[in-house]
Amino acid sequence: MTKNSKHILTATHLVFGLALGLALGLALLLASPPAHAAKKSGNVGSGLIGNTVILNGPAGTTQIFYKNRDDLIIKMPDGKTKRGWWRVKGRSICTKTGDGPESCTPAVDVPPAAGDAGTYPAPDASAPPITWEIRKGRAFK
Q: For 114, how many CA atoms within 13 A lie in the half-sphere containing its CB?
């Protein structure tokens, strides 16, 4: 393997982890109501503030910390961190990092909260399912 191909693989893992964590992760974990939910909430992002969404999949573990009502910090599978922002847009949760496009979930009826967890299929059907959980506080340094 050449040095250049190693960089391409690393970049591919970063992009996959980021896309998984931001686009698929929240969209799929929010698709079904959490166990604690009884009815619709006014702010679909309220349960994320101050908490970490952890996604475990084929590319490794991606952790997304929702620092406050605007900022997020992502720990990628390679251990590097990226900063970004998020917002509630109508009934969707939207995120953005760097120069990439904003990514929004489908409409969310019930906000996720610390303690919620589940699984969803990996993009590659032959891979094991991706697990997700929301931990209270910041789960990484």
A: 11
Whether 115 maps to a domain, the answer reads yes
pTM of the full predicted structure?
0.70
- Tell me how far CA of residue 137 lies from CA of 62, 134, 140, in angstroms: 15, 9, 9
Helix (H, G, I), strand (E, B) or coil at 71: strand
Rounded to the nearest 5 percent, the helix, strand and coil shares of the chain are: 20, 35, 50
Residue 141 in domain: no
Could you report the per-residue pLDDT of 60-111, keeping only the tens digit for each? 999 999 999 999 999 999 999 999 999 999 888 899 998 889 988 877 777 8
